């Protein structure tokens, strides 16, 4: 329905879930759960509690309904994040959509760990800040930025990155004090697991990747 040919599971629009308590803890907290933090990551960083997180996880990880979060862009590629709720193989797939192409390309996935190409900071910001009002999906730039954040694989983020992340987190309901803590931990984990190297080719450069058929509104 949302992605022609992506018939691995039953996709449904996920955008209505973005405002539910517990969403951002479910979506982002796992990135800080690899044991590398001096303190235990908690839902309260995002203004949530454990009950919120548990209740929404039942919806997000429902094998019968796979939420897809569309981030269409006015110019250049947009993105889609999909909860892949296969029994025994849960994860999140990240696809890019390109104007003029008849398919979307999967560039990354998050299972226990991140795998794939990802985006640089500037590529991420370019997509986040250029919503396509003519297409269905997420239009708010703060929300778009946070949906794209797991794709960041850039060790050289600007000094303004932390402030941008704190602003986005508070915009979706995180308390100011804990938003700063969450931003610090998220950026530390994301930049530490950078997969860029001298042979790396940006997925926005037109290089071929694994593709799935056409994305439609």
Quick structural summary:
The chain has 217 residues and is an alpha+beta fold. Helices cover 28% and strands 19% of the residues. The chain has helices at 23-28, 50-60, 121-128, 141-148, 161-171, 176-192, and strands at residues 11-13, 66-71, 78-86, 89-97, 103-110, 114-116, 211-213.
Describe it:
The chain has 217 residues and is an alpha+beta fold. The protein is 28% helix and 19% strand. It has six helices and seven strands. The chain has helices at residues 23-28, 50-60, 121-128, 141-148, 161-171, 176-192, and strands at 11-13, 66-71, 78-86, 89-97, 103-110, 114-116, 211-213. Strands 1, 2, 3, 4, 5, 6 and 7 form a seven-stranded mixed beta sheet that branches. A hairpin with a 6-residue loop joins β2 (66-71) and β3 (78-86). α3 packs antiparallel against α4, α4 (141-148) crosses α5 and α5 (161-171) packs across α6 (176-192). The longest helix has 17 residues, at 176-192. It is globular, with a radius of gyration of 16 Å. The N and C termini lie close together (9 Å). The relative contact order is 0.19. Mean pLDDT is 85; it is low at 195-200 and 207-217.
